[in-house]
Design goal:
The chain contains one helix and five strands; from the N terminus they run H-E-E-E-E-E. The chain has one helix spanning about 1-40; strands spanning about 50, 55-60, 65-70, 75-80, 85. The protein has two domains: about 1-40; about 45-90, SH3 type barrels (Roll), CATH 2.30.30. By secondary structure, the chain is an alpha+beta fold.
């Protein structure tokens, strides 16, 4: 019984540390991932996007796992949807 009482501050510390880590690290990442997946679902043909490589392009076609984008006149590439970081603002 004495050992359990001696370990209770350590157990309390571990529970509080895990709670803080969840609140400040894991939860925001989950919310950001959810927001990003929603953005990918809302993406439409003609939207201007930014890729993970920093390229700005326009969406030409959307397939299940890939997106065909136009970089310049007569320059189109097919990317994984995961390579799309965000929708760009029209300038």
């Amino acid at each position: 019984m004495d050992q359990l009482l001696a370990m209770s501050p350590m157990i309390t510390f571990l529970v509080v540390a895990y709670g803080a880590m969840y609140w400040f690290v894991i939860r925001p990442q989950q919310q950001q991932q959810k927001k990003r997946l929603e953005m990918l679902k809302q993406m439409r043909k003609g939207d201007k996007v930014v890729t993970s490589g920093g390229l700005h392009a326009w969406v030409v076609a959307i397939k299940e796992d890939t997106v065909r984008v136009k970089l310049a006149e007569r320059v189109e590439v097919e990317l994984e949807k995961g390579a799309i970081v965000r929708l760009a603002k029209e300038e």
